[in-house]
Amino acid sequence: MYGGPSFYSACMCVVGFGSIHGKSVAQVVSRFGPCSPFTGTSTNRNFTQQLHHDRARTRWIHSRVLLDTSTQNDTTLPATSGIALGALEFIVKIGLGTPKEDFLVMFDTGSDVTWVQCEPCPSSCHPQEGPRFNPSASATFQYFPCNATQCRELRNEGNVAVCDASVRYVDGAESSGHFGRDTLTLTSSDVFGNFPFGCGTQQVGSFGREAGLLGLGRNKLSLVSMTAKYYDSVFSYCLPSQASTGFLTFGPDPGSESASFTRLLTVPQVPTFYLVSLIGISVGGKPLNMSSTGGMILDSGTSLTQLPDPVYAALKSAFHSHMSAYSSVPGILGLDTCYDLSGHTDVSIPGVTFHFEGGTDLELQADAIIIGAGAGMNEVCLAFVPHAQLGILGNWQQKRTQIIHDLARSRIGFVPGACS
């Protein structure tokens, strides 16, 4: 039967990546499964809950894309973030302050503002792994005044001495507090002063045990933008399976010579997101009969890839024609192409390849094409979901591929098999 991963945890964690190509890296792990850094709580992924979070995040992303460009201002950030906080999966460790304190934060390419929980927080902070950040204990922390440029980027108004900050999420979670700056430590060799971030002292809604969030979007207050002159506006990550570790690295990568690149697009309505042009899909080595699919957002926070309805219909039909040896079973929660693999010891899954502009291909492995949708491994589903509008490449299809974001050269690169 199929032996690849499902939404449920594996048993052992395989640890790796202190460096790659001679560069220090931040280790990336899933908050689910045996590599989760969170202790004393269940780290199993809730399949139903995860798909609901995906839907909330997707609705917001698509609503932003469809907005009239005349109503948008590229230099300011919306008061409400597009993410459903519960949808985020991948965790990195960062250091803040002098002396440095370490914090486990989610990272997200669909968010710009970084934030952590801070002291004092008398009643409204969620339990997190480790202590909260204490601004008064850091020799280098400073609050932004309300008239600071960084504060205006948050659309803060008023003339108070300290800049207020509030980040709201579409699943109802909210972090409120103040906006400040301090020394950020990514690795032993990557240390930056005066990094802006939100200092949350009041949290509302459902949070995990993370200390906060690391924003890797394209807008002005993101880590990528704030460190552009040091890293030449380049960062990359490799998202691991639940039973292994991946990496997050900044700056040009000597190993990128092996990458295949496609053009990075910019849409004024959604300056935060990373957008590429998907021009075709092949199943079992045969191109689907379809017109150009247009833009596709690369999103670390959406789990399953979303495809426009006609594209998904063509993919589903072609995939199903290769799966005639297996019994179809009812779908679950929007996954409508599912099979029972009971009694089969040698399962053959047709390959799926995404073709991007410029001749760049992303060939998906079997466990990025299907997903175990039950507590056991007998039933699997095609791991894609239809949507009426713009496509989103989710993290289930991104895993084990190094994805290079080269903003200076307006390109996105893919290096398959860079982590496990």
What is the strand and helix layout of this fold?
Layout: E1 19-20, E2 23-24, E3 26-30, H1 47-65, E4 90-96, E5 101-108, E6 115-117, E7 142-143, H2 149-153, E8 164-168, E9 174-187, E10 190-204, E11 212-215, H3 223-226, H4 228-231, E12 234-238, E13 246-250, E14 260-263, E15 274-283, E16 286-287, E17 294-298, E18 305-308, H5 309-322, E19 327-329, E20 338-340, E21 352-356, E22 360-364, H6 366-369, E23 370-372, E24 379-382, E25 384-387, E26 391-393, H7 395-398, E27 401-406, E28 411-416
Parallel strand pairs: 5-11, 6-10, 17-26, 18-25
Antiparallel strand pairs: 1-2, 3-4, 3-13, 4-5, 4-9, 6-11, 7-9, 8-9, 9-10, 12-13, 12-27, 14-28, 15-16, 15-17, 15-21, 19-20, 20-24, 21-22, 23-24, 27-28
List keywords for this structure.
mainly beta, six-stranded mixed barrel, six-stranded mixed β-sheet
